[in-house]
Design brief:
The protein is α/β, with parallel strands linked by helices and 624 residues long. It contains 20 helices and 21 strands. The strands form five sheets. A seven-stranded parallel β-sheet has the order 17-16-15-18-19-20-21, sandwiched between helices.
């Protein structure tokens, strides 16, 4: 297999109705993994985070970091027209994220059960403080409240006994955004098998209890609940504490394991008799604190340099961002921009190989409702009808003349391609537009098992161009004619039928899809204009019937059409008698790119009202 690894979420469309932090961070991670994210915002100011300081370009710096690479759609969800517009987008969406209080989306006509009826494949993720059900479901709260009610906030106390205000939004990120992404990915994987989405209930407070696994073990297994300052992770051990240095800086010391503890004590000069922390932890804490307070942070940095022990100086955020160790790993190489302003993008836990390759992406501007972008579902005709940006398209027969021309054109129009043919074509991928995430899968289409494996490997696609076919040379008096006939029908007819059977359930579940079948004028003429053998003419006639049969069963979610080329200047017709073409209105062979354009059109939003049609692309031969 020769491939450029595709982005994991290429072809996935996400509608994000959330604001502030949890939902936007979740959709940012999805966008960085290749999903198309459309941020649905209020016309009167949009996401509340837009107004937060500091200002960056024309938006908040916080907003820019959390919304890099997304698009924005202004919509008043209480307005019937705007809501209808959003509902059309829902039909083409794979994922929806919202973080209103329970019941709000239902009152707007956008609840899960309401939307499931128009898009059964929708993965619907609700992020709230306390979940969709339960006695606190409607209670207001923020990160600090969730930490307080989960018991985590009370585990760390200042010297006066008051809980310490944490500088990180652990509930929003660790209890909201990350669980949302994990469960969205699980739901999408499940949908691949079932064809159905689901409603994900992310309760940020619930998910904080995972952080207290050690406290649960103490309380429920040992019968002793942790107390502030009394346990390892809350400052009750000298092996996991923060110590003040002579110059007012601090060391974070975590030599938990015995081998680290002994090295640590050696470096700070603590005698063996003074290290018995199991029997006298408070006394050992005091001794260690006195040793650390005797030297500056830089001195301790020097003494611990090169020693295999878990001790670090507590750095400022500014110094951490300037640390060459992080910069050397490419942590801050990506850029977010807004109206000419640029800064490093938010580092995310997605490796470069699985992340959108663009080094710079913009934060979305909020357009007034009167000028907002006219978003269209993928089945609606936009102002650029041939634009295939964001579409994943499977193309079989990709190495042939028409297939290769089609691959080049689809890539040029913005599609991400999964190409397939009987054997590897190492020269094909380099021909395609730079920057596309295309791959090639070699597949013999003669068996249903190999076709199922191809579709599983390809993953979800928005369109499939079924162009593989063979053109036999033997006459029907040849000894191998029967065997050749079976082979032609297997590749030219059964393979497209098996491919459609494998692809249609997923397309219908996602509420969208296109299938384009490559037929032939031989289906209409019996091959009289070019000497087409009987198996080929029969197979193409069957394909035209297959198009109409599939179209009736696939619509309205999936549009199935065909293209019937006339004689085309490809290797398949090399040596054939083409003299009959002189009587055509266009008396010549077609060029492969002249067949590719109608195929691309049928894949595009511009063909949103074409169903069950066979486009004659034959220089007028069908008029004879």
């Amino acid at each position: 297999m020769t491939s450029v690894v595709p982005l994991p979420l290429a072809g996935i469309r996400v509608l994000d109705f959330s604001n502030l932090l949890p939902g936007p961070l979740a959709s940012l991670l999805l966008a960085e993994a290749g999903a198309e994210v459309i941020k649905v915002e209020r016309p009167d100011g949009g996401d509340e985070m837009r107004a937060y300081a500091p200002v960056f370009g024309d938006v908040s710096g916080n907003f820019a970091l959390l919304n890099r690479g997304k698009a924005s759609l202004c919509a008043d969800l209480k307005d019937a027209g705007d809501r209808a517009h959003v509902l059309e987008l829902v039909r083409s969406a794979d994922v929806l994220i919202e973080q209103f209080r329970p019941g709000v989306m239902e009152r707007l006509g956008l609840g899960y059960e309401q939307l499931e009826r128009i898009n059964p494949g929708l993965v619907y993720c609700s992020i709230t403080g306390y979940g969709q059900t339960g006695m606190r479901a409607l209670k207001a709260g923020h990160d600090l409240n969730y930490l307080a009610e989960s018991g985590l906030l009370g585990l760390t106390r200042a010297s006066d006994g008051a809980p310490v205000l944490p500088p990180v939004l652990a509930a929003d990120i660790g209890g909201g955004a990350y669980p949302a992404v994990i469960n969205i990915m699980l739901a999408l994987k499940s949908r691949d098998g079932t064809g159905r989405g689901c409603h994900i209930d992310v309760a940020m407070t619930d998910n904080l209890f995972t952080f207290a696994y050690w406290g649960q073990a103490m309380g429920q297994a040992a019968g002793r609940w942790p107390r502030p300052g009394g346990e390892l992770t809350s400052g009750g051990s000298p092996r996991y504490r923060i110590y003040r240095t002579a110059d007012g800086e601090y060391l974070a010391a975590a030599p938990i394991e015995e081998r680290f503890w002994q090295i640590f004590c050696d470096v700070i000069g603590l005698a063996p008799a003074e290290r018995h922390d199991a029997s006298e932890p408070e006394a050992v804490i005091a001794r260690v604190a006195a040793r650390i307070a005797s030297a500056s942070a830089d001195e301790w940095r020097r003494r611990f340099a090169g020693r295999d022990v878990c001790v670090t100086v507590v750095e400022s955020l500014q110094s951490a961002f300037a640390d060459p160790a992080f910069a050397g790993r490419g942590l801050f190489e990506r850029v977010v921009s807004a109206q000419g302003a640029r800064m490093p993008a938010l580092p995310v836990p997605i490796p470069a190989a699985l992340r959108h390759p663009a080094p710079e992406r913009e934060a979305p501007a909020l357009e007034p409702a009167a000028r907002r972008r006219s978003w269209s579902a993928r089945e609606s005709a936009p102002s650029r009808p041939y634009d295939l940006s964001g579409m994943r398209i499977l193309l079989t027969g990709a190495s042939g003349g028409i297939g290769r021309a089609t691959a080049r054109l689809l890539a040029e129009l913005g599609a991400e391609l999964v190409l397939s043919d009987r054997v590897e074509a190492p020269d094909l991928l380099p021909e395609l537009r730079a920057g596309g995430h295309h791959r090639f899968i070699a597949c013999e289409l003669g068996s249903r098992a190999s076709i199922d494996a191809l579709c599983a490997d390809a993953g979800p696609v928005d369109a499939a161009v079924l162009g593989a076919g063979i053109f036999p040379r033997s006459g029907w008096d040849a000894p191998a004619w029967d065997e050749e006939f079976e082979q032609v029908m297997a590749i030219n007819v059964r393979a497209p039928a098996h491919l459609a059977r494998a692809l249609l359930p997923g397309m219908k579940a996602r509420g969208r899809g296109r299938i384009v079948v490559l037929g032939s004028i031989a289906a209409q003429t019996g091959g009289s204009y070019v000497d087409s053998p009987l198996p080929y003419a029969c197979s193409k006639g069957a394909l035209h019937t297959l198009v109409r049969w599939l179209a009736r069963r696939a619509a309205p979610e999936v549009l199935v059409n065909g293209v019937a080329p006339g004689s085309t200047d490809t290797a398949m017709l090399a040596g054939s008698d083409t003299s009959a073409l002189r009587a055509n209105p266009l008396p010549r062979l077609g060029r492969p790119e002249e067949i590719a354009w109608p195929i691309a059109f049928l894949c595009s939003p511009g063909a949103s009202f074409i169903c069950g049609n066979i486009l004659d692309v034959n220089g007028g031969a069908s008029m004879r």
